[in-house]
Design a protein that fits this description.
mainly alpha; 8 helices; 65% helix; transcription regulation; Regulatory protein zeste
Length: 242
Protein backbone atom coordinates (compact mmCIF):
# COMPACT_ATOMS: atom_id res chain seq x y z
CA UNK A 1 0.00 0.00 0.00
CA UNK A 2 1.54 3.29 -1.09
CA UNK A 3 1.94 6.05 1.45
CA UNK A 4 0.92 9.59 0.59
CA UNK A 5 2.81 12.57 1.98
CA UNK A 6 0.90 14.77 4.36
CA UNK A 7 -0.35 17.98 2.77
CA UNK A 8 1.22 21.10 4.24
CA UNK A 9 -1.30 23.87 4.91
CA UNK A 10 -0.22 27.50 5.13
CA UNK A 11 -2.44 30.16 6.64
CA UNK A 12 -2.71 33.61 5.07
CA UNK A 13 -0.52 34.98 7.87
CA UNK A 14 2.11 32.33 7.10
CA UNK A 15 2.10 33.36 3.43
CA UNK A 16 2.49 37.03 4.34
CA UNK A 17 5.38 36.20 6.65
CA UNK A 18 7.09 34.10 3.98
CA UNK A 19 6.76 36.80 1.31
CA UNK A 20 8.03 39.52 3.67
CA UNK A 21 11.14 37.46 4.40
CA UNK A 22 11.75 36.59 0.74
CA UNK A 23 11.48 40.23 -0.34
CA UNK A 24 14.57 41.04 1.74
CA UNK A 25 16.46 38.27 -0.12
CA UNK A 26 14.88 38.71 -3.57
CA UNK A 27 18.13 39.83 -5.24
CA UNK A 28 19.50 36.34 -4.65
CA UNK A 29 16.32 34.26 -4.91
CA UNK A 30 15.21 35.84 -8.21
CA UNK A 31 18.69 36.01 -9.76
CA UNK A 32 18.57 34.61 -13.30
CA UNK A 33 22.18 33.38 -13.33
CA UNK A 34 22.74 29.61 -13.34
CA UNK A 35 26.41 29.33 -12.35
CA UNK A 36 27.62 27.29 -9.38
CA UNK A 37 28.27 30.36 -7.21
CA UNK A 38 24.73 31.68 -7.67
CA UNK A 39 23.31 28.22 -6.97
CA UNK A 40 25.21 27.99 -3.68
CA UNK A 41 24.08 31.51 -2.73
CA UNK A 42 20.46 30.52 -3.36
CA UNK A 43 20.80 27.40 -1.18
CA UNK A 44 22.31 29.51 1.61
CA UNK A 45 19.60 32.17 1.21
CA UNK A 46 16.79 29.60 1.43
CA UNK A 47 18.38 28.08 4.54
CA UNK A 48 18.48 31.54 6.13
CA UNK A 49 14.88 32.21 5.09
CA UNK A 50 13.84 28.93 6.72
CA UNK A 51 15.63 29.87 9.96
CA UNK A 52 13.93 33.28 10.13
CA UNK A 53 10.53 31.83 9.20
CA UNK A 54 10.72 29.00 11.75
CA UNK A 55 11.66 31.49 14.47
CA UNK A 56 8.35 33.31 13.93
CA UNK A 57 5.95 30.37 13.65
CA UNK A 58 4.88 27.37 15.70
CA UNK A 59 5.03 24.97 12.72
CA UNK A 60 8.59 24.72 11.34
CA UNK A 61 9.12 24.15 7.61
CA UNK A 62 12.13 23.03 5.65
CA UNK A 63 13.81 25.27 3.10
CA UNK A 64 12.55 23.00 0.29
CA UNK A 65 8.95 23.22 1.55
CA UNK A 66 9.12 27.02 1.68
CA UNK A 67 10.62 27.18 -1.82
CA UNK A 68 7.81 25.01 -3.21
CA UNK A 69 5.19 27.17 -1.48
CA UNK A 70 6.78 30.32 -2.91
CA UNK A 71 6.73 28.86 -6.45
CA UNK A 72 3.05 27.96 -6.03
CA UNK A 73 2.25 31.50 -4.86
CA UNK A 74 3.85 32.95 -7.98
CA UNK A 75 1.81 30.57 -10.16
CA UNK A 76 -1.39 31.68 -8.41
CA UNK A 77 -0.59 35.35 -9.05
CA UNK A 78 0.10 34.70 -12.74
CA UNK A 79 -3.20 32.83 -13.07
CA UNK A 80 -5.02 35.72 -11.40
CA UNK A 81 -3.48 38.27 -13.76
CA UNK A 82 -4.36 36.13 -16.79
CA UNK A 83 -7.95 35.83 -15.58
CA UNK A 84 -8.20 39.60 -15.04
CA UNK A 85 -6.76 40.26 -18.50
CA UNK A 86 -9.32 37.95 -20.09
CA UNK A 87 -12.15 39.56 -18.12
CA UNK A 88 -11.03 43.03 -19.21
CA UNK A 89 -11.01 42.06 -22.89
CA UNK A 90 -14.61 40.92 -22.54
CA UNK A 91 -15.83 44.32 -21.28
CA UNK A 92 -15.58 45.91 -24.72
CA UNK A 93 -12.85 48.43 -23.94
CA UNK A 94 -12.61 51.47 -21.72
CA UNK A 95 -10.06 52.51 -19.14
CA UNK A 96 -10.45 50.38 -16.04
CA UNK A 97 -8.68 50.74 -12.72
CA UNK A 98 -7.16 47.45 -11.50
CA UNK A 99 -8.84 45.73 -8.58
CA UNK A 100 -7.30 46.29 -5.17
CA UNK A 101 -4.95 43.36 -4.72
CA UNK A 102 -4.30 41.40 -1.60
CA UNK A 103 -1.06 42.39 0.16
CA UNK A 104 0.44 39.05 -0.73
CA UNK A 105 -0.34 39.40 -4.45
CA UNK A 106 0.85 43.02 -4.46
CA UNK A 107 4.18 42.03 -2.91
CA UNK A 108 4.70 39.16 -5.33
CA UNK A 109 3.75 41.18 -8.41
CA UNK A 110 5.56 44.47 -7.71
CA UNK A 111 8.50 43.51 -5.52
CA UNK A 112 9.43 40.09 -6.90
CA UNK A 113 7.88 39.15 -10.24
CA UNK A 114 8.74 42.42 -11.98
CA UNK A 115 11.71 43.69 -9.95
CA UNK A 116 14.54 41.85 -11.68
CA UNK A 117 13.25 42.07 -15.26
CA UNK A 118 14.48 44.71 -17.76
CA UNK A 119 12.57 47.99 -17.69
CA UNK A 120 11.11 47.40 -21.16
CA UNK A 121 9.81 43.97 -20.13
CA UNK A 122 8.42 45.32 -16.86
CA UNK A 123 6.49 48.04 -18.61
CA UNK A 124 5.21 45.60 -21.20
CA UNK A 125 3.97 43.11 -18.58
CA UNK A 126 2.36 45.69 -16.30
CA UNK A 127 0.60 47.52 -19.14
CA UNK A 128 -0.36 44.49 -21.21
CA UNK A 129 -3.68 44.18 -19.39
CA UNK A 130 -4.82 47.62 -20.53
CA UNK A 131 -3.12 47.79 -23.95
CA UNK A 132 -6.17 47.28 -26.19
CA UNK A 133 -8.58 49.30 -24.09
CA UNK A 134 -6.21 52.29 -23.80
CA UNK A 135 -5.58 52.36 -27.55
CA UNK A 136 -9.32 52.47 -28.21
CA UNK A 137 -9.78 55.33 -25.76
CA UNK A 138 -6.92 57.30 -27.35
CA UNK A 139 -8.46 56.92 -30.83
CA UNK A 140 -11.81 58.18 -29.57
CA UNK A 141 -10.15 61.11 -27.83
CA UNK A 142 -8.33 62.13 -31.03
CA UNK A 143 -11.63 62.27 -32.90
CA UNK A 144 -13.78 63.95 -30.27
CA UNK A 145 -11.48 65.93 -27.97
CA UNK A 146 -8.89 68.65 -28.48
CA UNK A 147 -8.06 69.30 -24.84
CA UNK A 148 -5.32 67.39 -23.01
CA UNK A 149 -7.45 66.63 -19.96
CA UNK A 150 -11.03 65.35 -20.13
CA UNK A 151 -13.73 67.86 -19.45
CA UNK A 152 -15.04 67.89 -15.89
CA UNK A 153 -18.71 67.01 -16.02
CA UNK A 154 -20.91 69.06 -13.73
CA UNK A 155 -24.36 67.90 -14.82
CA UNK A 156 -24.93 64.21 -14.10
CA UNK A 157 -28.57 64.07 -15.15
CA UNK A 158 -27.67 62.05 -18.27
CA UNK A 159 -25.40 59.64 -16.35
CA UNK A 160 -24.57 56.29 -17.97
CA UNK A 161 -22.62 53.32 -16.51
CA UNK A 162 -19.97 53.74 -19.21
CA UNK A 163 -18.91 57.02 -17.56
CA UNK A 164 -17.44 55.02 -14.68
CA UNK A 165 -14.76 53.75 -17.07
CA UNK A 166 -13.81 57.19 -18.33
CA UNK A 167 -10.30 58.48 -17.73
CA UNK A 168 -9.69 60.43 -14.55
CA UNK A 169 -9.04 64.14 -14.76
CA UNK A 170 -5.46 65.17 -14.04
CA UNK A 171 -6.59 67.00 -10.90
CA UNK A 172 -8.01 63.77 -9.47
CA UNK A 173 -4.96 61.65 -10.25
CA UNK A 174 -2.75 60.87 -7.27
CA UNK A 175 0.93 61.36 -8.00
CA UNK A 176 3.34 59.08 -6.26
CA UNK A 177 6.25 60.81 -4.60
CA UNK A 178 9.77 60.02 -5.75
CA UNK A 179 10.73 59.11 -2.20
CA UNK A 180 8.12 56.35 -1.93
CA UNK A 181 10.44 53.72 -3.34
CA UNK A 182 13.20 54.71 -0.95
CA UNK A 183 10.85 54.67 2.03
CA UNK A 184 9.63 51.19 1.04
CA UNK A 185 13.23 49.97 0.93
CA UNK A 186 13.81 51.43 4.40
CA UNK A 187 10.71 49.64 5.70
CA UNK A 188 11.83 46.33 4.23
CA UNK A 189 15.33 46.73 5.67
CA UNK A 190 13.88 47.55 9.10
CA UNK A 191 11.48 44.58 8.92
CA UNK A 192 14.33 42.25 7.96
CA UNK A 193 16.46 43.58 10.83
CA UNK A 194 13.65 43.06 13.35
CA UNK A 195 13.04 39.51 12.12
CA UNK A 196 16.73 38.65 12.39
CA UNK A 197 16.90 40.10 15.91
CA UNK A 198 13.82 38.12 16.94
CA UNK A 199 15.32 34.94 15.49
CA UNK A 200 18.54 35.58 17.44
CA UNK A 201 16.61 36.14 20.67
CA UNK A 202 14.66 32.92 20.16
CA UNK A 203 17.88 31.04 19.49
CA UNK A 204 19.52 32.39 22.67
CA UNK A 205 16.41 31.55 24.70
CA UNK A 206 16.40 28.01 23.30
CA UNK A 207 20.09 27.52 24.17
CA UNK A 208 19.58 28.88 27.71
CA UNK A 209 16.58 26.59 28.24
CA UNK A 210 18.53 23.54 27.06
CA UNK A 211 21.42 24.40 29.39
CA UNK A 212 19.03 24.80 32.32
CA UNK A 213 17.34 21.47 31.58
CA UNK A 214 20.76 19.78 31.39
CA UNK A 215 21.70 21.30 34.76
CA UNK A 216 18.44 20.10 36.34
CA UNK A 217 19.02 16.62 34.92
CA UNK A 218 22.51 16.62 36.42
CA UNK A 219 21.12 17.52 39.86
CA UNK A 220 18.52 14.75 39.63
CA UNK A 221 21.17 12.15 38.78
CA UNK A 222 23.31 13.30 41.72
CA UNK A 223 20.31 13.13 44.06
CA UNK A 224 19.56 9.55 42.96
CA UNK A 225 23.19 8.59 43.54
CA UNK A 226 23.14 10.01 47.08
CA UNK A 227 19.88 8.24 47.88
CA UNK A 228 21.34 4.93 46.66
CA UNK A 229 24.46 5.46 48.78
CA UNK A 230 22.32 6.21 51.84
CA UNK A 231 20.22 3.10 51.23
CA UNK A 232 23.36 0.99 50.90
CA UNK A 233 24.67 2.27 54.26
CA UNK A 234 21.38 1.48 55.95
CA UNK A 235 21.51 -2.07 54.57
CA UNK A 236 25.07 -2.52 55.89
CA UNK A 237 24.02 -1.31 59.36
CA UNK A 238 21.10 -3.74 59.43
CA UNK A 239 23.41 -6.62 58.49
CA UNK A 240 25.77 -5.78 61.36
CA UNK A 241 22.90 -5.62 63.86
CA UNK A 242 21.73 -9.06 62.81
Amino acid sequence: MSTRSKRIIYSEADCHTLVDIIISHKNIIECKKTDATTWKEKITAWAKIADIYNATTMEPRTAEQLRCKYDNLKKEVRKLEAHKRQALYQTGGGVSEPDIKDTLQQALEEDILFDNLPKETVAEQKNDIFKNSESEVKENEMLTETKKDPEIKKNWSDYTPKMLRSKRHRVLQVKRKATDHQSEDDKQNLKRKLMEEEAQRNKEYHIARMEREAEIHKYKIENIRLQNAKLQLEIELLKKQL
